[in-house]
Each structure stands twice: as structure tokens, then as C-alpha cells.
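Protocol step 6 of 9: fold each sequence in the batch and record its C-alpha cells directly after the sequence line. For illustration, a two-sequence batch is reproduced in full.

Sequence one:
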Amino acid sequence: MGVRLIVVDDHRLLAEALASALKLRGHRVVAAAAPAAGAADLVIARAPEVCLLGTAAPADPGVFDPVVKIKRERPQVAVLVLGPVPSPRGIAAAFAAGASGYVRHDERIEGVERAIMKARAGESAVAPQLLQGAFGELLNPAAQPDDEAQRLLEMLTPREVEVLVRVADGEDTRLIAAGMGIAPSTARTHVQRVLMKLGVGSRLEAAALAARTGLLDRAGSLRGVGGAEPDLP
């Protein structure tokens, strides 16, 4: 039985070519679109079984934010990333965001189809060697010479670290204020400063960045460390 699919890639020609090939193999492609940045809203609206999300730069910050949003709003949708040969950090970021698999752009259509079927069945669809590298990255983030989590943490004060953890837990401004014993206006200011320091434009992006880099694991051990900071005026 064919799979109900959405194919998204920054290059429309690639998205449409892959969609055509999958249709010929009996699958139902409900949309083929570009750019990949708009994937989340499209998937949420159309609710396919599997979304094929193409990316040319799996290690770039924010590239898997659509995956985070899709899994939050449509957790039943399996997201399969298609991209170049990734670094362990890139594939780890894909899985940390909630992707069900990673397929290289140069894979044959038969390989893509096998990955689609695995993803729909709830299995991980990724080559063993890529998965091994990803697990190493997830289990030993501190071993990487370019420690992005530590670099980001050094930008934040202890109170901002706590705010970030609460944002990642899904707390709104009112809950953050109540949990930290501060005024809502102060909580709102802290949130804005965290977003500014991390270089992101939304709470969702901040949560995705924190999860992707391992920053949340580090932050958990730092909450409550250091002296209290005065509330902002």
C-alpha cells in the first residue's frame, strides 16, 4: 500500500522530481514544495504519514526547527530528512529534533522508499554507520572540540539559564514569573534577553537550539549555581 507523503526541499525542482518518482511507485504525494523552512505549516495542515524534508546544510543552526514544530503539533507524522553526507553533529541534531531517519541525497529511489516504509512503521531509517556517529555525538557532546553548548552557556547569567530551561519546558511568561518569584514584566525581559543572546527569534527556536546542542543537559546541572541576581526594574 502506498504512503501518504509530503516532499519539501529548498530546491523546488528536486522536490518535484522526487515527488514524481514516488508517485510512479504507487505513493500518494499530497504536496511537493519549497522552501524547506515552510515545511512545518504545510505538514500541520495536510497531516501526511511521512514528510520528506530536504536540506543542503544539516549542521546549520535552526535547520531542523521545522521538525521540532511538526513533532509538537503532529507527533504521528514521521519526518525523514534527506541531505548530504552529514557530520555526526548534523545527524544527531536531526534525531534530537524528532526526525525518524536520515537518507543521503545520493541514495537510489529504492533506498528512499525503504526508508519511507521504515519511518511509517515507527522504525529508525538510517544507515548503521551514520547512526553510530550520531550516538557518539549525543552521548559525548563534551568530547567535541567545538563545544557550542558551553559557548552558549557562557553568554547567559544563572537566572537566564533557569529561564531558558523553563522556556524549553513549555512554560509561558506567567508560569516563569510564578516559578521564579519575579514579576511577569521581569520574566518577559529575561526571556527577551535570552533570545537575543542566543541569536534566535522565538521561544520555539530557543528550545530547539538548546536541545540540539546539548545545552539543556548542561543547564540542568547549573540551575541554582551562583548568587541570586536582582530583579530587573
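Sequence two, same batch, same settings:
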Amino acid sequence: METMKDQTVRWSMLVHGDWTIYLAATAAGLCYVGSVNQPFAELEAWVEKHRPQSSLVQDDPWLKPFATELMEYMQGTREHFSMNCDLSGTPFQLAVWEALRQIPYGQTASYTDIANIIEKPAAVRAVGAAIGANPVLITVPCHRVVGKNGSLTGYRGGLPMKTTLLDLEQKSNRGVKHG
């Protein structure tokens, strides 16, 4: 297996209302958006598992452009993200994450829909696992995936976060920046 070269993962904490979210990025782009109000240990564990040769360095000014876009989204003034993402996963995971990015703002899709989009209709459970492994919450909008019957299903950030994000998109479908 190819060894990942050493790289710096820069991180910052975004505060929005009563939410705190850890963000991390490499020189290639945003690589991690954490769950709401989770400890720094969640980010550390993710870096240790997925980017073990990397050093983790706090760098608030460097992450400001990423934080700004996320804040605009959470304030209901941004619909699309213009930032680069540095996603590393299996080819299947990357295909699922790209399909998630195609779900329009304010809309939802089912796990079956995503399986069909990536032309793997029998892989609904694997799609669910790939969605659960999405390292970049909000930016890769896994919160827009719901059960076949429209019910809210699991979300790494927790169902309250998922509900809040879906409600935000329903309320702010006008006057948004298209990044």
C-alpha cells in the first residue's frame, strides 16, 4: 500500500449560536467538518485514523475562508460552497460523496436514490456506510439523505443537527449566494 506523505492538517473551531464545530483542512482543501459540540478528541481520532502521517496544527486565520463559507451557510445566506475539499476514501465512497453534492439545496434524496445515481442499485447498505463515513459534514450534504419513506435516519452529527440543517434549507431558499 502506498504511504501517504507527511502533510499538515490545520484546524480551527467554528462557533455559531450554541454550536461549536471543529474544521480541518490541508493545502488541497477542507478535509473534515466535525459533529456539533463534540470534543477536539473527535478530530484527533479522525486525523490519526485517516491521515496518520500528518501533523495537526491550529491555524484560525488559515481556516477563515472555510469558516466564512460555513457560517454564511448556517446563517441562510449561502446555498453552494466554492471551497475545495480534500476527500480521501475508497473509489466507492468518493462516488457516493460526489452524488451527495448533486442533491440540490433544500431537497432530499433517499439511500436508494444515491445507489441508483452511482449505478449500484443493489448497494443501498454500502451507500449508507459510505454516507456515514463522510468526513465533511454540511459541505458534502449527507444531511439531505433520508429514508425511503422520507423519515430522518442516522447522521454522524446527530439527528438534532440534521433536523436543524434541513429546516434551515427549507426556510432560506431565497436570497442566497451561489458560491
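Proceed to step 7 once all outputs are recorded. Observation for sequence two: The chain has six helices and six strands.
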